[in-house]
Structure formats: structure tokens, C-alpha cells
Design brief:
With 176 residues, the chain is of the alpha+beta class. It is 20% helix and 47% strand.
Length: 176
């Protein structure tokens, strides 16, 4: 999952997850920007990781972490981020897709050549054209993680303005 998500802003990630789950029969509709305003958005993501408490890396990864970012969403950056997600799909299988005018939910299982498997469950809701929220859970297991590692992300985004100020389209600025 980390390879697929590298280089995508948090808001873009939330939006890309929502469109990516659409059935392939409506691929042309996927390319259309989501039903939200384009411009400056602020996203708060709280991430909890468990299952690595007894490892050297686990001491730094455990507990809850909250990050707030601002990002500039345009129709063009939406399409570029969606393309990034599509380009690296060979090791993943999606199931249980549900999408309607108000949100989307899906499950996805990804494996890699190191014998690790990650199962993701994602749900996002458009609370109007200026607000959205979602939850993603992931479980990763493999030879070095026989007990598995679990991650839960709670995301909430809201529109700030049509002008992105000094934040370039597709970029994100960490606020805290």
C-alpha cells in the first residue's frame, strides 16, 4: 500500500479512494472531478497503528497521530492523482464496491513480492460540496509481522477557498 500512496496529498488520497472504487464500466465518469468544490482544502487525519508495540520501529509508530494538511485540488490534479493510483494496480484485488452520489465503500487486498498481504477497508462520505469524511482500516501481515499490523485512519476535510494562495495544485502543506 505504501508504494501506491507515495506522492499523493491526503485530500487527493481521500478523493482518489472515493473515485477509484467505481465499477470499471463507468471509467469515463471516474475521470470527472468529485462533486466537491475545487480549490484550497484542509484535511485532518488521525492515524492509529497497533501490532508493532514490541518492535524497534513500533515505539515510534504506536498510538494516535494527527496531521493537518492543506492542499490545492483542481480538476487536473484530480486526474493526475487518479492516474497514479491506476498505474500500480497489478498486485491488488478490489471487492465489495458500493458507490452512490453520497459516498463510496470498498475492500481491497494487495500482496507484494515479499509475501506481505495488506487488506484495506475504505469508506468515504460527501457531506456536501464543502465537507467530506472517511475511514480507512488496513491489516498487514507477512513473515516479519506474524501477529500483523493494524492501521486505522479517520479523515475529515473541508473547503477553505477557491484561491489556493501559495499552495500549488496537487501539492500539500503540513499545518500541524
Amino acid at each position: 500500500m505504501n508504494v501506491r500512496l507515495r506522492g499523493i496529498s491526503t485530500l487527493s488520497l481521500l478523493l482518489v479512494f472515493t473515485a477509484f472504487a467505481a465499477p470499471r464500466a463507468v471509467r469515463a465518469q471516474e475521470d470527472a472531478p468529485p462533486p466537491v468544490k475545487m480549490g484550497l482544502w484542509q484535511t485532518e487525519v488521525t492515524t492509529s497503528i497497533s501490532g508493532m508495540e514490541n518492535s524497534p520501529a513500533g515505539a515510534h509508530m504506536g498510538g494516535d497521530r494527527t496531521q493537518v494538511t492543506q492542499s490545492c485540488m483542481t480538476a487536473d490534479t484530480w486526474k493526475k492523482d487518479l492516474l497514479k493510483m491506476r498505474q500500480q494496480q497489478s498486485e491488488c484485488t478490489m471487492a465489495d464496491m458500493h458507490m452512490d452520489a453520497h459516498g463510496v465503500a470498498f475492500s481491497e487486498t494487495c500482496g507484494d513480492n515479499h509475501q506481505y498481504t495488506t487488506t484495506v477497508h475504505f469508506q468515504a462520505t460527501f457531506d456536501g460540496d464543502e465537507h467530506m469524511h472517511g475511514t480507512a482500516t488496513a491489516h498487514t501481515a507477512g513473515p516479519a509481522l506474524p501477529q500483523g499490523m493494524d492501521m486505522t485512519m479517520h479523515m475529515a476535510s473541508h473547503y477553505l477557498s477557491a484561491s489556493c494562495g501559495d499552495i500549488k495544485p496537487g501539492a500539500a502543506k503540513v499545518i500541524r
